[in-house]
Write a structure and sequence with these properties.
The structure holds three protein chains of three kinds.
Chain A (H helix, E strand, L loop, with lengths): L12 H7 L3 H26 L3 H9 L4 H32 L9 H35 L8 H23 L24 H29 L12 H33 L12 H34 L7 H14 L15 H13 L1 H15 L8 H24 L1 H7 L3 H31 L5 H27 L14 H31 L1 H4 L36 H8 L12 E4 L4 H18 L2 H19 L5 E4 L1 H17 L22
Antiparallel strand pairs in A: 1-2
Helix pairs in contact in A: 1-2, 2-6, 4-5, 4-6, 4-17, 5-6, 5-7, 5-9, 5-15, 6-7, 6-20, 7-8, 7-20, 8-9, 8-10, 9-12, 9-15, 10-12, 12-13, 13-15, 13-16, 15-16, 16-17, 20-21
Chain B lengths: L1 H6 L11 H38 L7 H4 L2 H27 L3 H33 L7 H34 L3 H34 L1
Helix pairs in contact in B: 2-6, 2-7, 4-5, 4-7, 5-6, 6-7
Chain C lengths: L5 H18 L11 H34 L16 H28 L11 E8 L2 E6 L4 E4 L1 E5 L4 E7 L4 E5 L4 E5 L5 E5 L5 E7 L11 E7 L1 H12 L4 E2 L1 H9 L7 E2 L1 E2 L3 H7 L4 H4 L4
The chains are: A mainly alpha, B mainly alpha, C alpha+beta.
């Protein structure tokens, strides 16, 4: 064996094309080339512009929760681009493959649906929501940072290492074909030899370790770092959902880690956890995976529920309807989410009464969810609704989410599930929940809080255009799948039989392309808005007539967030302060502020984790040992660092704070009808 | 001063410091408890898997009762329990006496007992492998047996490394609040591993022999 | 009850109906051809009907609210309105009642539609073994087997006893029976019946590698007399299906026989025994 383990030149994706110049290999090579060129382009830009130093000292080593949050979101968006491309290729293949093999090999198709699912869950949805919570939650509770800023950076580094592993798999070797859920024994060594499943195992494991740490960090932050007066029942609803999601992360990620590590032991060391025979139990994997997987669904959706709560309230200019109801409903969902995992395998042959228990438990989740939908509707009642991008997406979410809820209740019935399990009906259902629910929620959040993060709004017209492309695209891409599923179309099929499927598949392909176009317009919108940021600037920090503490800060907020920790005596404190005319009052006195100092430990751990994972995939044992030693050394060395904070002098805090407030106080308040124009500089005229 | 008393962390002696240090300690200790909770979920999942595969996963290989030897396991248990006691003495030395030597002594005793435990457990594994051919590749039961006890073994090993680092830090930094907090968290981890071992002893070894 | 589901039926039918009519065999349980699929269809439609209690009001109210309370619209502005006891009661009460009803239906239907419960006295027992990528069906009583094709007598209850000789698979006959996993080392049972003669598609629905997309079989329901003729036809075929013959069948995709005239005793148990704990394998007979 060479020093590079199983790795060989022939594992490069381009070598595959040279061996067999088919369309199938051309697609793989093009994807690999795209990844390489993208990386090279990024390096060139960083070098030419001289951005390496600011990138390193301003971002990669920063422990500022806001910057870490933004990096999470960037990671999520980059991976989203790849996942959309994969979805479009898969639909194109199915269109080309009615009753014939099509242009992709079945093996390649298997890799595509596996990476698409893995990326969307672990490297798009999770980074997006983690990033948004990271940025927003400490601001909403009046804190200066999370409790463990370094752990926060380490979580990001581990997630990024997992994402990097997935990107490398485009160029070196092949990925798993076992789907995002990776069921053995198919993913065991006997049926899936080679590096593919190993790539999947280590990418997912890194991500789940990062998420476990994130969950703990957020939960402790919300419990311990709230500003004076911020009782639990005064927290904004987004923070409540962040809390519930964090608790779910703490409890739910461990079963996934155990499941993937057991699968790794099966594959690497010949253990028999999930093998067929020798006392392996493949059904145990299904239980462990979904013991994680079902709470995971709510880890994904709850923060989006929080975003929708903020959006409906803010863009109706009105307090949230049924705050207590919404909190209780969120908690109910979080608790119930641990009691329903078996509904992912009603068809595994257990007793009917067991299925019935889990079916009823599943339907129970419909109650709090239904309450939420109507609470949001009633939030708009007696308001003054403004149709900004987040609210447009929100209304679309309400309408489509209930359809997803209906199909969810259908699938909760074992009787119906026997006829729809593993079908495109199921695929349509979870995309129906996750696209309008989670993804649109995250894009609403990006539109909503982008001005807070960067100091300028996103261009409104392009935002509306991309929103409509997404909304139309979703309908075209997934409503036909409901019908296809009921017609007997299964998921994960590289080719469908000839016959009735063609027209509906064509609509689905069109939908996928529309979603891709919507994303392109979104990127264009970002580019345009950055170019014209002066016109869109909202330096006073409150572009949407916000209600919670984050809007009381300039945009972008200073590193320390709050010059003086706020004291609150009610919900929506900033709205009340604006109505009382004391929103921009100056603090009496300033103090020195201690903030966490930069640290290179997180990028070092991320690099070490990547080295370990890559070494494990290719059996390069020296690299594994080196990575583990480096990680241990970094952790121990960090514990000997005594200067972990730096002090920001009171004079500086004073200068920055008064510089901003003295201008904001005298700025002309913007009426809501001019919200989407250049007149909006971030000082809102309160609505009476 | 009364302010400080109100928020003082009960397990620690940080009384010469200001309120912020106590608040900070509170968050750090709470965070560590949450971390331990997540770790317990990991063990819970392993226990659940053991419950299934120790019955259904024997697959013609040796059964629990054939390979377990309670004498060795009992010694392991006694050693680990004693180490928990000495770790408790270390924590008391940390809290009630500003006495570095006593703290270091008890930490050393704990580490020695921990090392003994690891040796005994390793020897027990070797015995099973040698006398019964009971290696993890034989059956689902043995896979989860080694995974469960091995995970505990790795935890104890990591805690041993931690003890080593703390001994160096006590020497280098003295009993700074940060060092005290780290020793305190180390103690929590150590006791928790003891609790998990009680679970393993009862659930794996005693039940296994009874069957 | 039967009136409410009209709307979704129309919706589903308008989406898929014309297309399905062209082919017939490729379809789901909405085009039921047996008692199980018929019950699934009825249950499916009744849930849609009940759920419309909470869904329809939203679709009506959403546009009304958006119109009435738009900025500059006619609705009164009351920014502090955030609670109403009656509203809360309705918001929690209606879904709770609805879930109570649906939960009751779920419970009774799930127990009634237990895939392990035979659909009548004296079901025809057929053993199914799946592999990557195919199916063999053993007509135990007649001692014959057929490959990638399942012939059943129309109208008679059938019990499939299923196992897998590869990975986890899911045997799915949408228009007759729904699906259940077939797993190595284990036996699961799926009961079904066809109302009348016809040809229906069955397939594996659990991804198991490159041959997954085309791993399907035809289910052919025949009148009793024709069924016997088919069995006689199978009995006249060469070859005995035993473990060795089965492995040869698995290995040669190009020249798959259509059937076997004889089957070794305990064939299913032998395949299960390849993976099962020896003490558990004895339970399959």
């Amino acid at each position: 064996m060479t020093p590079f383990g199983l790795l060989d030149w022939s594992d490069l994706v381009f070598a595959g094309f040279l061996r067999d110049p088919s369309v199938n290999e051309a697609v793989a090579s093009a994807a690999g080339a795209f990844a390489v060129l993208g990386a090279v382009a990024a390096l060139v830009v960083l070098t030419v512009k001289g951005w390496w130093r600011p990138l390193w000292s301003g971002w990669l080593t920063s422990l500022d929760h806001k910057r870490i949050g933004i990096m999470y979101v960037v990671l999520g968006l980059v991976m989203f681009a790849r996942a959309i491309a994969e979805a479009s290729v898969m639909r194109a293949q199915q269109m080309a493959a009615l009753g014939e093999p099509g242009f992709l090999s079945a093996e390649h198709f298997g890799q595509l649906f596996t990476t698409h699912g893995t990326i969307m869950i672990f490297f798009v949805a999770m980074p997006l929501l983690t990033g948004i919570i990271n940025f927003v939650m400490p601001l909403q509770i009046g804190a200066r940072d999370v409790t463990f800023p370094l752990v926060n950076a380490v979580s990001l580094a581990l997630t990024a290492a997992g994402a990097a592993l997935l990107m490398v798999s485009l160029v070196v070797g092949r990925f798993s074909t076992g789907g995002w859920s990776g069921y053995p024994p198919f993913t065991g060594a006997a049926f899936s030899p080679g590096e593919g499943v190993d790539y999947w195992i280590w990418a997912v494991t890194l991500s789940s370790l990062g998420s476990t740490l994130t969950g703990m960090n957020f939960a402790v932050t919300i419990y311990k770092e709230r500003c004076p007066g911020m009782h639990l029942f005064r927290m904004p609803l987004f923070t409540w959902t962040a809390l519930c999601t964090s608790i779910l992360m703490i409890f739910a990620m461990a079963p996934l880690t155990v499941a993937t590590l057991m699968l790794a032991l099966d594959r690497y060391a010949g253990f028999h956890f999930f093998t067929a025979g020798s006392g392996g139990d493949m059904m145990n994997y299904a239980n462990l995976f979904w013991l994680f997987g079902h709470p995971e669904v709510y880890i994904l959706i709850l923060p989006a529920f929080g975003v929708w709560s903020e959006v409906f309230s803010t863009f109706s200019g009105k307090t949230l309807y049924g705050y207590t109801s919404l909190v209780i409903a969120t908690m109910c969902i979080a608790v119930l989410s641990f009691t329903v995992w078996l509904h992912h395998f009603f068809t595994m042959g257990q007793a009917a009464s067991i299925n019935a228990v889990f079916g009823v438990a599943t339907m129970l989740i419909g109650v709090p969810t239904g309450v939420k939908v109507y609470d949001w509707l009633l939030t708009m009642v007696r308001g003054r609704i403004r149709f900004r991008v987040p609210l447009i997406l929100g209304c679309y979410f309400l309408a489509t989410f209930v359809i997803g809820g209906l199909t969810g209740v259908l699938l909760a019935n074992p009787t119906v599930d026997y006829g729809t399990h593993n079908s495109l009906f199921l695929v349509a259902h979870f995309h129906n929940m996750l696209i309008p629910g989670l993804l649109f929620g995250m894009f609403a959040a990006i539109h909503f809080w982008f001005p807070k993060a960067f100091g300028f709004r996103l261009h409104e017209g392009l935002g509306v255009l991309s929103a409509f492309l997404w909304m139309g695209g979703f309908l075209c891409a997934f409503m036909p799948l409901y019908a296809l599923g009921l017609m007997g179309g299964m998921r994960r099929m590289a080719q469908l039989p000839e016959g009735p499927f063609g027209p509906l598949l064509a609509v689905a392909l069109l939908g996928a392309l529309m979603i891709a176009a919507g994303f392109a317009v979104f990127v264009l919108q970002l580019w345009w808005s950055v170019r014209h940021r002066d016109r869109l600037a909202v330096p006073h920090g409150d572009p949407w007539d916000g209600r919670t503490l984050e809007w009381a800060l300039p945009a972008p907020p200073p590193e320390w967030n709050f010059a003086v920790l706020p004291e609150v005596d009610r919900r929506d404190p900033f709205d009340a302060a604006k109505l009382a005319g004391i929103a921009y009052a100056l603090p009496d006195r300033y103090e020195d502020i201690e903030m966490p100092a930069n640290s290179a430990v997180a990028p070092a751990l991320g690099a070490a984790a990547f080295a370990v994972a890559f070494g494990l995939v290719w059996h390069i044992w020296w690299l594994v040992a080196f990575g583990l030693a480096a990680a241990l050394a970094a952790i121990v060395a960090r514990s000997f660092v005594t200067e972990t904070t730096r002090t920001i002098p009171a004079a500086h805090v004073r200068q920055v704070t008064e510089g901003w407030r003295s201008i904001a106080r005298v700025a002309t308040p913007c009426p809501r009808r001019a919200e989407a124009t250049g007149a909006n500089r971030g000082r809102a005229r309160p609505q009476q | 001063m009364s302010d400080v008393t109100a928020t003082r962390h009960p397990g620690l002696n940080l009384n010469h410091t200001d309120r912020e240090t106590h608040d900070r300690a509170e968050s750090v200790m709470f965070g560590f408890w949450v971390f331990m909770m997540s770790d317990l979920v990991l063990f819970a999942v392993l226990f659940a898997t053991y419950a299934a595969q120790s019955v259904h996963g024997i697959a013609g290989g040796p059964a629990p009762a054939e390979i377990f030897e309670l004498k060795s396991t009992l010694w392991q248990t006694l050693v680990l329990l004693t180490s928990s006691f000495t770790m408790g003495l270390a924590a008391l030395a940390l809290k009630y006496r500003d006495d570095r030597r006593r703290l270091v002594l008890w930490l050393l005793v704990t580490a020695a007992l921990g090392g003994t435990f690891l040796y005994l457990e390793g020897a027990d594994w070797l015995r099973m492998a040698r006398d019964h051919g009971a290696v993890p590749q034989v059956s689902g039961f043995l896979s989860i047996f080694y995974a469960l006890t091995g995970t505990h073994f790795l935890h104890v090993s990591a805690a041993m490394v931690w003890i080593g680092v703390m001994l160096v830090q006590i020497g280098r930094f003295g009993l700074k609040p940060e060092v005290k907090l780290r020793v305190m968290r180390l103690a929590i981890l150590w006791h928790l591993l003891d609790v998990v071992w009680i679970g393993i002893f009862t659930f794996v070894f005693l039940f296994g022999v009874v069957q | 009850m039967r009136l409410i589901p009209c709307l979704p039926v129309l919706l589903a039918a308008s989406l898929a109906g014309p297309a399905v009519a062209e082919t017939g065999t490729q379809a789901g349980f909405l085009w039921a051809a047996g008692p199980i699929a018929e019950a699934q269809r009825a249950h499916f439609l009744s849930i849609i009907g009940w759920m419309s209690v909470v869904i329809v009001p939203l679709f009506v109210a959403l546009p009304v609210v958006l119109w009435r309370y738009r900025a500059g619209g006619p609705g009164a502005f009351r920014p502090d309105w955030g609670n109403s006891p009656l509203g809360e009661a309705v918001l929690w009460g209606v879904p709770a009642l609805l879930v109570a009803v649906l939960g009751w239906n779920l419970w009774t239907e799930t127990l009634r539609m237990d895939p392990y419960a035979p659909l009548g006295p004296d079901p025809l027992v057929i053993d199914v073994v799946t592999w990557n990528w195919g199916f063999v069906f053993v007509h135990g009583a007649a001692g014959v087997a057929e490959v990638d094709r399942l012939t059943i007598p129309a109208g008679r209850p059938v019990t499939l006893r299923m196992t897998s000789d590869s990975v986890m698979q899911s045997v799915f006959i949408p228009r007759l029976a729904g699906q259940l996993y077939a797993m190595p080392g284990m036996v699961t049972e799926l009961n079904l019946a066809a109302d009348g003669p016809g040809t229906f598609t069955g397939r594996n629905s659990q991804y198991n590698g490159p041959g997954f997309a085309t791993q399907s079989f035809d289910v052919i329901a025949l009148p009793a007399g024709e069924y016997d003729a088919r069995i006689a036809q199978l009995a006249a075929m060469e070859g005995t299906l035993d473990a060795a013959g089965f492995d040869a069948l698995k290995g040669d995709d190009a020249a798959r026989p259509q059937g076997f005239g004889a089957v070794s005793d305990g064939f299913l148990a032998e395949i299960v025994g390849r993976y099962a704990d020896p003490r558990m394998a004895g339970m399959v007979h």
